[in-house]
């Protein structure tokens, strides 16, 4: 009798590599692995052969980098999405797309189950399972790394016993996740929030002290909130994000070291390399400052924060997140123009912005003779604007 099938989200890392053997031996399932390329393609070169060598009956690779850029990165960028004002949703952003690929593969291969390699204390288990439930509420999800009751060291030993090649050892314990939008680094010495991240943890960025002694200026062009050019050269969004990451990383920009409040209720020390994402969010936000009306801009800031929280919590396919997408989309047509960034010694500063849709009026803003602002109107404006406070103050004094 043929065994039932499970489609496993496969990265080639420790937990998913061990999960292949564990699902086959402990759950008596035929394992089909699915590696999803969301912009980290260079790391997937040998993942297909590796999965088959470990015990998968079939190994799939889905190249969805362009879809990730078009349908996920653009929306997060339009929302200037930074969880807790710092984290640009690297892993959070890719999980709903990986979940979509898992469900599609399960349907195509008539698999009874899908599986992921998340542990019981991480955010990703929530993101995967909530997204999968939204896309197919009938499919059953297996979480071997949550169920097998092994520590990280146990998993490493399991891999050794079963001749499973993994990129992690006790001497090199970092857990890495990366995609087009950046790179996350966990575990090892990073679990001590007092310890400075060692240089061997980083790949995309140089240390600020080793960055060039001369600044680099970069002009990013936007159309409808989407970056389309660097220095006037049009390019695909995937290439543009890669180029911004390369420029920022060369100048030591884009390292984030934070204490993060996880969805599951614990605080976690997280380290990220996100030079391209942070630079583009900074540029996009600066262009919005120039082109969006004041009340809309202020209200959108609150929407942006909620948007980042929803995505971080794994609610990409929720009705609220979909509704916020609609609101944010109405704000973006005006976000067209150019922003000039200055990279220098670990920093990225906005030093210029221009747009045909600019709401900045020199004649109103200047203090020079060209000033057209109605100074005479200011006195009456202040009187009416402050009237409620004035009345309140008089009453208060009387009491």
How would you portray this structure in words?
This protein is an alpha/beta fold and 399 residues long. It folds into 3 domains: 5-175, HUPs (Rossmann fold, 3-Layer(aba) Sandwich); 178-354, Argininosuccinate synthetase, chain A, domain 2 (Alpha-Beta Complex), CATH 3.90.1260; 365-398, no CATH class. Helix content is 42%, strand content 20%. The chain contains 14 helices and 14 strands. It has helices spanning 14-26, 47-54, 65-78, 90-108, 124-135, 144-147, 152-161, 237-250, 275-291, 294-312, 319-331, 362-365, 376-385, 387-398; strands spanning 5-9, 30-37, 58-63, 113-115, 140-142, 175-179, 182-186, 216-223, 226-230, 233-234, 255-261, 267-273, 337-344, 347-354. It has a 5-stranded parallel beta sheet, with helices on both faces. Strand 4 (113-115), helix 5 and strand 5 form a beta-alpha-beta unit. Helix 1 (14-26) packs across helix 7 and helix 10 (294-312) packs antiparallel against helix 11 (319-331). The longest helix is centred in the first third of the chain and has 19 residues, at 90-108. The chain starts with a strand and ends with a helix. The model has no long low-confidence stretch (mean pLDDT 93).
